Amino acid sequence: MSTPPQARRNTRHGRNLVAGVLLGLGTVAFVDEVVFHQLLRWHHFYDLSTPDVALISDGLFHAFSWFATVASLLMVAALSRERAFWGAAFAAGWLTGAGFFQLYDGLIQHKVLGLHQIRYGVDLLSYDVTWNVIAAVLLLAGIVLWVTTARRARRLAKPART
Amino acid sequence: MDHHTHPGPEAALPVAGEWPAAALPAVLLVSYLAAVLVLRGRGIAWPAARTLAWAAGCLSVGAAVVGPLARPAHHDFTVHMAGHVLLGMLGPLLLVLAAPVTLLLRVLPVRAARPVARLLASRPAGVLAGPLVAGVLNVGGLWVLYRTGLYAAMHTDPLLHALVHVHVAAAGYLFAFAVLGGPDPAPHRSSPQWRAAVLVLAIAAHNILAKTLYAAPPEGVPAEQARAGAELMYYAGAPVEIALIFLVCRPWLLPRERGTVRAAA
């Protein structure tokens, strides 16, 4: 469903967003693990030059991403049960979460903290640019959709209050 | 003068420690089954899923301390790590899900059950079953084990070896119970947000430890074994971690609908 349940005063905009953001984080972490670590083997399990702070950051993010995935799916189940799942708000959250995490991974973890690189033995520039541009596009699309759905949620909530 | 370079006490160690190690999970299994039978004799049903979880948990713990997996664990770090996942993660989770304390309280006469319930409600029990304390005992214990000389020492001292194994299993149980806050009675249960946060931190600490073991093997472990062991710790631990996350989040984020009957508590 891409339209909010009109009959309800509460569109559950916030909860749909949070569920989306969590799944966005989880999806990016999952793609990172499955595609880049396991299938392509571009990323290393542990790059021996990784500094401690990058290791801690990565460890926390990976642990949180599992939690985020599971929590999001349960929230979606709860929202659908009360017929309050709103696809557009969920997508806004998903895009924002995925874009944010990919940008964090690409800029902070890979570049600033010096965690493993995207690929080894190649010119990194094109990889880094592609990675981060995709991330920025996702994030931007997410924010636009976020603002649009928030406005819509407010409009729907208004007549109910008077 | 004789130089006993080969068998020595180290080779004899697993055999010496094998029977007591096998006895404990066996006794736990038999006691649980006996209690279920006593309840049935009184006409009280006990969920088969719990009995199954207990049996699987005892099997998991038993497989880690005795038999074909336990023996090579003494000299092969990769196998040791497989044992760690069974003894400290999967086994304890299954045992917690079997709700042994609930079973105990039901099977004991009221007069004997009361002190048990009082003990559970006591302040020390509450501190010990706090997620943060349990998490530090659990994952912190692993950091101590692999990051000090303890790992090397436990392979020459049978008593130390047994103590480390008991600690890993007990701390694993305590942590799973503290984080799930059930199914056994948990008078000191903290909020699901806090339990989930501590769980995420503990998973992170476990994963970070695995990565540092990959880079810097514990004392006396060859680099190749350390790498394989570290990856096993990281990836084989994940399903158990995901199961824990699911079990913490489900009652919190997807509570049963009002009006539906709760499954036998």
Automatic annotation (TrEMBL), chain A:
State whether keyword Nuclease applies.
Answer: no
Residues spanning the membrane: 17-40, 60-78, 85-104, 129-148
Ligase: present as a keyword of the record?
A: no
Domain of life, per UniProt, equals Bacteria
Provide this UniProt record's keywords sorted from A to Z: Membrane, Transmembrane, Transmembrane helix
InterPro entries from the UniProt entry: DUF2243_membrane
> What is this protein's record name?
Putative membrane protein
Species of the source = Nocardiopsis algeriensis
TrEMBL record, chain B:
User: Under the cellular component aspect of Gene Ontology, which terms does the record hold?
Assistant: plasma membrane
Predominant localisation class: membrane
User: Membrane-spanning regions, if any?
Assistant: 20-39, 51-70, 82-105, 125-146, 158-182, 194-214, 234-253
Q: Does the keyword DNA damage apply?
A: no
Instruction: List the keywords (alphabetical).
Output: Cell membrane, Membrane, Transmembrane, Transmembrane helix
Bilayer disposition of the protein = Multi-pass membrane protein
Location(s), subcellular: Cell membrane
- Asked whether the keyword Membrane is assigned, the reply is yes
Query: What protein does this entry describe?
Result: Putative membrane protein
From which organism does this entry originate?
Answer: Nocardiopsis algeriensis
The beginning of the lineage is: Bacteria, Bacillati, Actinomycetota, Actinomycetes, Streptosporangiales
